[in-house]
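Researcher: Next entry in the queue.
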Amino acid sequence: MGTNFVYNRVNINGIPCIESRSITETTTNVTFNFSPSLYTSSRFSGLIAVRIDEAAAATADALPVSFNVPSIAGTTIALTTFDGAAVTGADLAQGIHLVFYDRYNGVLQLLV
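Model: Structure for this entry, 112 residues:
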């Protein structure tokens, strides 16, 4: 009671859904920023529906993407494909994406 975590469930006790709040682009990467979420403050491993509201600039198309997760002490986690290749700005358009998150191993993989 009294927690202020920002997240929604897609269905009852189903897949958590989070939404990007901003995007930071540098010459080396593209970082999507999220509000603290319940899934990041527990020992969660599983699927997450991620809503991306911002699009990377065309100049960032070839840059790797990471997610900034504030409740893990501001840690950024690289987003990869299921085979381990880096997801680039061109790969991540606005919309809903399904990712797999494994907190124990620091894995964040884009599924669709």
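Model: The chain has one domain: 8-110.
Researcher: Noted, moving on.
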